[in-house]
Structures are given as structure tokens and as C-alpha cells.
């Protein structure tokens, strides 16, 4: 029983780690000051943002470290990488020392790598302590990574709201302090026995409560995260946010309310699924068995013109054979819809097979032209606000993006809670989630008002947050749960590539408008662009690119819809027997 209590302490510690280690999201809070102190161009500043995102490419190194060191050692290695990377950057922005640009680039790369190491530690903790509810644990904790910028804004306002450099100091120290606070639960990690069915359901009830508490936390940060007030009020607001993060330690008391929740809420939702892995091993095997029976009942080849026949091969994969009507010429659109079409969910795709799948590249383009644009937008938020004369609202915009990114991450779990009453393919939800991005970018292109900037920032944050949280789930469902680690790392290579391409595009447009005359100012030896034209073409280009991502996601949905529907029909049929 003590082990069951300690696992919830570990979950809370994991939430803390995620909430305080998303340090890449507050880059825009100090980027303008960083650019001014270093005396660099917008293109060079973009390369520093790319360096932070490039750390994701080296995320595999954390797995290698876990092969040789205990989990708590890897945690502190990540903390000290962040301390070194951000700490020296803080000394730079304070003019305590000077370094060549190349070394600053490496410091940003090191800081970005530390974030990936923290994420790996959190994933392992959830995997070890919640084997039965692993997807719920991972989706909940990952969501808190979206509130990091809002929490750091609160902390900065409580200490010194006039200093942009304070963000770098906080980025260096807070993850280390969080690691120290999380050390005791991690060291006392229990060896858990398999849970009975009732205990698994009880745990899922607690996760539902934690998601409700997460919404409260997000609303609190949205309302008070960027409030500019005196130091005392700011410290009180920061204390309130910390209280909301500590409150889940009272989880044992929540168990006493399980009967009320079970009768009023829990029975209204089906929690078998999750926002991370819809296809578990048992459902997948059942799905294959039902497909095998279906193939046997209709014979080796389906009868009828244009019919779709499912066959089960020796390795358990499904082959879709489409027979054309006699004399009918298949059109280009039809070929695009059925060629190499995914016939079932959960089929394992090794890396070599993955990169040859048309569906994977549709997914890659959808992510590259959707969620990654949202991340680059957040990196440029400081310069966007500055160019529109909204420098004083930078922290407000940062909190707005952070809070709505958090809500987007939480919303990614909603399809699983409502699947018993309304089922829709997750690739369809992904398409819906991409819609706000082009709307926001075109809104920003046509209007430079403060209202448009706030609305656009909120929409981009909501959209990108949903995509970031749902991505692992979609990867697992389409290309196999056992291969998700490798396959998802291949997918997220689009982030540093997109950060470079989109950031460079924005920087070139920005610098070009400085050179065009009448739009530039020279401040602290670095060029600053003022006016709507600084980002007008960038928003237009980003908006058009995001439309391409939306089209790619729509095509992916149309190609995979039948596989999702077939899986859900089989799952419901199995529940009747």
C-alpha cells in the first residue's frame, strides 16, 4: 500500500519537472535584449533559437546515459547541462564576460539538449510506476511542459519585472532546484506489483481529477500569469501557482471521493483509451484475429467490382487489394487515396519501412507545416511585439501563448474521454487542430492591432499545443506502439529543420525591411525594425505554408479513416461478447 502512495508522489514530482523545464518557451522574453547585448543580426539570433531546438536531435543521448547511470544521476546531469548553458548566457547578457558567437551557439545547443534529457527521465518514471495507466500519466505530465513560460513570467515579475536577464538566471537555477525537490520520491521509487482491475479503474478516476486540477492551474496562470503589479502582489500570485502544483500531494484524500466521481462522472466516460496510445496489445491482437476471420469468410479474393479485400499475411500485417471495375480507368485522386493505404492500426513499422510510407510523409508535412510553425512563432514573439510597438506586452503575450498551449495539450485527451459517445479518427482531430494556425497567421497579416496580436497568439498556442501532445499518440497508432520511440524521434527531426527554415525566412524579411529605409532604428549596436512590414510577408508565407500542412493532414485523415473506423468497430464488437 505504501508503494501505491509513493507512486503518486513520483507523478507529482514528474509534473514539477515538466512544469519547470520547458525553458525553451521563454526565449522571446529575453531575445531582444540578447540580440542587443551581443550586437547580432536577426538572422544570427534565429540561429541561436535553432541551436536550442537542435538539442532534440541529440535526445537519443539520454537513453544511452540511462544504460550506464541511475535515473537520478541522469536527472542531475540534465540539470547541470541547463545550469551551464543558461548560466553562462546570463553572464553574457549581464556583460560579465564575452564569448565568440560560435560558443554562444554551443551553449544554446547544450541548454536545448538538457530539456530532452528531462523529458526522457519523466517518460521513464511514468513508464515504471504506471504500467497500467502509462498513457494517462504521460499525457498529463507532458501537458505541464506547456505552462513553463507562464510560471517563469510569474517568477520574473516577483523578483525583478524590469530585467529581461532574470529569465536566463531562472532557467539555469529553477530546474536544478526542482531536481533536488524531486530526488527523495525518485530514490524511494517502489517496486509495484500488477494492479487488479478495480485499482486500475480507481487510478483512472484520480487521473480524471488531476486533469480537472490541471485546467484550474491553466486558468489561474492565464488570468494572473502576466499581471504587472508590485513585488508583494507578484510574490503572492507566484505562491498561489506553486500551491496548485503542490496540491496533488493530497491525492490519498481524493480516493475517499471515488464513489461520488464514479457514479456522476466516471460512468459517463470510457477511459480504456488515452491521449497517447489508443491501440494496446490486447486490442491489437483482437483486431488481427477479427480481420483474419473476415478474410476467411469472404475467400481469398473479394467479389464485386471495385471492392476492397483484406488479407492477413504470415507476419500478421494486412494487405489491401483494390480491384478496379472492368474497363474503368483509375483517376489520379483515386490512386492517391488507395496506393499503399494503411489498412490497420498498430502495425509495426521499422525505420526503413517507415520512411517509405506515403502516410508517414503526409504526417511529417502536417507537423512540419503546423506545430513547428507555432514553435517558431513563439521564438519570434519578442521581436513581433517590439516591431508592433507592444514591447511592454511581451510577457503578457508569452503567458497567453503558454497558457493556451497548455490548454491545447489538455484538449488532446478529450477525444478519448468522449469516444464512447462520439468517435472520430485521431487524424481527423489533428486536422481540426491545425485549422487555427492559418486563421491566426492571416489575421496577423491583415491587422497589426493589439487585439489581433493577442487573438492570433492564443490561436497559435492552442493549435501547436494540441499537435505537440497528440503527436506521440498518432505515431503509435499509425506506425506501431513498439516502434514509437524510434519513429517519433524521426518525426521530430522536422522541428530543428523547421526552426531553421521558418526562422531564417522571418529574419531575412525582418532585416530586409530595416534596409529598405524609414523602418529601422539603430539601438545598442543592433538593428531593430519597427512597423507592420517587419513581419507582414512572414505571416503571409507562414499562413500559406500552414495551409499546405492542413491539406496534408486532411489527406492523411482521408487515407487512414477506414483503419480507425475498422478498429473501433472491432473493439465495440468484442465488448458485446
Please provide a written account of the structure.
The structure is a single chain. This protein has 27 helices and four strands. It has helices at residues 2-20, 27-38, 42-54, 60-66, 71-93, 101-129, 134-143, 148-159, 166-187, 197-224, 231-246, 251-254, 258-264, 281-298, 332-338, 351-354, 358-368, 371-379, 381-387, 394-411, 414-417, 426-434, 436-446, 450-479, 484-491, 494-515, 533-575, and strands at 308-312, 318-322, 520-523, 526-529. A two-stranded antiparallel ribbon has the order 1-2. A two-stranded antiparallel sheet has the order 3-4. It folds into three domains: 1-268, MFS general substrate transporter like domains (Growth Hormone, Chain: A, Up-down Bundle), CATH 1.20.1250; 281-348, no CATH class; 349-577, MFS general substrate transporter like domains (Growth Hormone, Chain: A). By secondary structure, it is mainly alpha-helical. It is found in: Membrane. Residues 7-252 form the Nodulin-like domain.
Q: What share of the residues lie within helices? A: 55-70%
- Rg, alpha carbons: 25 Å
Name the CATH architecture of the largest domain: Up-down Bundle
| Unreliably modeled segments | 269-279, 294-327, 518-525
Distance between the termini: 34 Å
Which strand-content bin applies to the residues? under 5%
Secondary-structure-derived class: mainly alpha
What's the shape?
A: globular
- Total DSSP helices: 27
Count of the domains = 3
Largest sheet: 2 strands, antiparallel
How many beta strands in the DSSP annotation?
A: 4
**If strands are numbered along the chain, what order do they take across the biggest sheet?**
1-2
CATH hierarchy, class of the largest domain? Mainly Alpha
Per CATH, the superfamily of the largest domain is: MFS general substrate transporter like domains
CATH topology group of the largest domain:
Growth Hormone, Chain: A
Mean pLDDT, to the nearest integer, reads 79
Amino acid at each position: 500500500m505504501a508503494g501505491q502512495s509513493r507512486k503518486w508522489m513520483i507523478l507529482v514530482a514528474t509534473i514539477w519537472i515538466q512544469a519547470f523545464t520547458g525553458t525553451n518557451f521563454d526565449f522571446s522574453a529575453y531575445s531582444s535584449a540578447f540580440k542587443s547585448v551581443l550586437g547580432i543580426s536577426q538572422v544570427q539570433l534565429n540561429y541561436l533559437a535553432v541551436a536550442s531546438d537542435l538539442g532534440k536531435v541529440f535526445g537519443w543521448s539520454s537513453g544511452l546515459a540511462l544504460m550506464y547511470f541511475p535515473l537520478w544521476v541522469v536527472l542531475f546531469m540534465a540539470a547541470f547541462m541547463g545550469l551551464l548553458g543558461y548560466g553562462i548566457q546570463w553572464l553574457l547578457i549581464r556583460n560579465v564576460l564575452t564569448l565568440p558567437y560560435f560558443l554562444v551557439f554551443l551553449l544554446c545547443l547544450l541548454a536545448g539538449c538538457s530539456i530532452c534529457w528531462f523529458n526522457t527521465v519523466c517518460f521513464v518514471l511514468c513508464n515504471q510506476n504506471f504500467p497500467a495507466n502509462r498513457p494517462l500519466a504521460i499525457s498529463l505530465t507532458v501537458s505541464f511542459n506547456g505552462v513553463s513560460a507562464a510560471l517563469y513570467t510569474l517568477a520574473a515579475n516577483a523578483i525583478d519585472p524590469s530585467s529581461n536577464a532574470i529569465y536566463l538566471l531562472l532557467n539555469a537555477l529553477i530546474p536544478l532546484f526542482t531536481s533536488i525537490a524531486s530526488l527523495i520520491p525518485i530514490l524511494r521509487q517502489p517496486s509495484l506489483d500488477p494492479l487488479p482491475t478495480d485499482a486500475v479503474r480507481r487510478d483512472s478516476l484520480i487521473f480524471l481529477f488531476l486533469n480537472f486540477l490541471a485546467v484550474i492551474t491553466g486558468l489561474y496562470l492565464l488570468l494572473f500569469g502576466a499581471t504587472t503589479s508590485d513585488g508583494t502582489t507578484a510574490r503572492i500570485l507566484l505562491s498561489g501557482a506553486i500551491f496548485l502544483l503542490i496540491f496533488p500531494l493530497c491525492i490519498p484524500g481524493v480516493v475517499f471521493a471515488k464513489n461520488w466521481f464514479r457514479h456522476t462522472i466516471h460512468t459517463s466516460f470510457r477511459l480504456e483509451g488515452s491521449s497517447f496510445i489508443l491501440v494496446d496489445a490486447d486490442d491489437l491482437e483482437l483486431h488481427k484475429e477479427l480481420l483474419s476471420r473476415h478474410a476467411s469468410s469472404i475467400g481469398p479474393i473479394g467479389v464485386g467490382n471495385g471492392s476492397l479485400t483484406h488479407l492477413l499475411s504470415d507476419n500478421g500485417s494486412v494487405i489491401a487489394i483494390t480491384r478496379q471495375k472492368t474497363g474503368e480507368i483509375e483517376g489520379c485522386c483515386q490512386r492517391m487515396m488507395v496506393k499503399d493505404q494503411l489498412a490497420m492500426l498498430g502495425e509495426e513499422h521499422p525505420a526503413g519501412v517507415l520512411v517509405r510510407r506515403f502516410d508517414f510523409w503526409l504526417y511529417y508535412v502536417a507537423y512540419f507545416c503546423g506545430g513547428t510553425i507555432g514553435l517558431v512563432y513563439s521564438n519570434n514573439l519578442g521581436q513581433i511585439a517590439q516591431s508592433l510597438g507592444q514591447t511592454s506586452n511581451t510577457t503578457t503575450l508569452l503567458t497567453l501563448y503558454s497558457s493556451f498551449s497548455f490548454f491545447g495539450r489538455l484538449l488532446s485527451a478529450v477525444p478519448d474521454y468522449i469516444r464512447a459517445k462520439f468517435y472520430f479518427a485521431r487524424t481527423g482531430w489533428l486536422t481540426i487542430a491545425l485549422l487555427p494556425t492559418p486563421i491566426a497567421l492571416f489575421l496577423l497579416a491583415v491587422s497589426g492591432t493589439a487585439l489581433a496580436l493577442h487573438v492570433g497568439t492564443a490561436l497559435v498556442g492552442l493549435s501547436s499545443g494540441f499537435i505537440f501532445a497528440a503527436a506521440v499518440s498518432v505515431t503509435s497508432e499509425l506506425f506501431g506502439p513498439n516502434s514509437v520511440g524510434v519513429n517519433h524521434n524521426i518525426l521530430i527531426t522536422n522541428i530543428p529543420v523547421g526552426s531553421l527554415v521558418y526562422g531564417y525566412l522571418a529574419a531575412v524579411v525582418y532585416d530586409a525591411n530595416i534596409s529598405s529605409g524609414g523602418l529601422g532604428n539603430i539601438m545598442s549596436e543592433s538593428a531593430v525594425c519597427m512597423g507592420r512590414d517587419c513581419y507582414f510577408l512572414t505571416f503571409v508565407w507562414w499562413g500559406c505554408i500552414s495551409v499546405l500542412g492542413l491539406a496534408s493532414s486532411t489527406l492523411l485523415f482521408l487515407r487512414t479513416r477506414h483503419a480507425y473506423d475498422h478498429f473501433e468497430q472491432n473493439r465495440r464488437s468484442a465488448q458485446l461478447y
